[in-house]
Amino acid sequence: MTRRMVVLGTLLTLVAFAAPATGQFNAHDPGPRGGPAGAGGMVDGLTDAQKAVFAAGLDDFNEEDGIASGLGPRFNMNSCGGCHAAPAVGGTSPAVNPQVAIATFNGAKNVVPPFIRLNGPVREVRFKYNADGSRDGGVHALYVISGRKDSDGDATGCTIKQEEFGPQLNRNNVIFRIPSPVFGLGLIESIPDSAIVANQQNTASVRSALGIFGRPNFTLPTGNPNRNGNDGTIARFGWKAQNKSGLLFAGEAYNVEQGISNELFPQEREENADCQFASVPNTTTNMEGATAADILSDIQKFALFMKFLAQPTPAPATASTTR
Predict the structure, then answer these.
(1) Residue pLDDT tens, the chain, 323 long
(2) Cα angle at 137 between 136 and 142, to 5 degrees?
């Protein structure tokens, strides 16, 4: 038997413990979808103001952060769009991994880890255990800004060291995550909890026939399955469906992946004073802005961009034909 992880959308994470029995349906990977992307546009029915915020959010999603805007001091990538790029902005890893070039961009001294390849996926790294044997599971950023000199910011005085991933790999202590597409997140956000529970119950026999078994993941502090610790409702965004809303998801990702502190995550993950080159938190609401797009902070624009980002259109039937 094989152990497979099956992720159903961004709502529930289920673990399949056994392959289907002989004669049952076997899922297969049809390969890359051909033709138009079928994704990346706005949901239908937006007002002019909402379209303007979507456009502003798209621009910020693609914007490359640097020293002056608070990148790092530890980070995985310098833009949201760099990781969420295929088949359109908001998707997953592009064909050429930007984490290779960003390692030494503008004089940075990072070494590209062996598990980051030019033609491989964008990767986020977590360690299974701490040095004392206790559970870790947290994100360990690939790179640091040390030695980097941008046109509008100089981090040559920052001397923090990049983590050593080799010893962790040798101890089999490394696990990876790749970028999840964010298409249709506003639609997912609006699904009632009761619909999620009912869908899980109503598909139980079908999933069982396919060898798929599992449960929603547990969220502390309540111990309830996949429930928000404050109000008891179902959380649904992130690799462990740990975040309740698209806004919280955006704030966490901005802080963890790019090192950009914000109103939801106001502290720096690396507080070395020699590596701080922007006010903390790095991005906040602009009370003096003239338009909605000017007033909103980056994470608010990210969240609204994802909320207004349409779901992908179904792939052509030929895309799922057995090869």
Answers:
(1) 333 333 333 333 333 333 444 455 666 777 777 788 999 999 999 999 999 999 999 999 999 999 999 999 999 999 999 999 999 999 999 999 999 999 999 999 999 999 999 999 999 999 999 999 999 999 999 999 999 999 999 999 999 999 999 999 999 999 999 999 999 999 999 998 888 888 888 999 998 888 887 665 445 555 565 565 667 778 888 887 888 899 999 999 999 999 999 999 999 999 999 999 999 999 999 999 999 999 999 999 999 999 999 999 987 765 444 44
(2) 105
Q: 93-101 contacts: CB < 8 A, separation 24 or more?
A: 93/121, 93/122, 93/178, 93/179, 94/122, 95/119, 97/121, 97/122, 98/122, 99/123, 99/142
CB atoms < 10 A from the CB of 95, how many? Answer: 9
Dump the DSSP string for 91-112: SB--SS-TTTGGGGGGG--PPP
Distance CA 91, CA 83 (A): 8
Burial 262-279, CB ≥16 within 10 A → b, else e: bebbeebbbeeeebbbbe
